[in-house]
Design brief:
Layout: E1 3-7, H1 11-23, E2 27-31, H2 34-43, E3 48-52, H3 60-70, E4 75-80, H4 85-93, E5 98-101, H5 106-119
Parallel strand pairs: 1-2, 1-3, 3-4, 4-5
Helix pairs in contact: 2-3
Length: 121
Amino acid sequence: MAEILALDDVQDATILIGKILAKKGHNVHTFTEEDEAIVFAKENKVDLAILDIKLKKMSGVDVLAKMKEATPAMHAIMLTGYPTVETAREAISLGADEYCVKPIDRDELEEKVEKVLASKG
């Protein structure tokens, strides 16, 4: 079981991620505000952050950079509705392990979460 943080400016997306991963036995903390998610990540153990790239105030890549400062070992999966090679490259260069294309596909999300969590250590 992992501590997973999900951040998306669309609440339905965080609810969906929460439902999918809770069924797999994970503890999922969902957020729609960047600041709240960053504070949570700094004050709590987070094994994996699932972050949307397009957010309200800052990009998911910026949020990832701030979270990585506090928790360098944290894994991350980026979500994007606008997949480009540049976005993927930027996210991975900043420490994201994977990225998923929205709308979220349950099987893809489960598979990537398992893969990322299995690779830690």
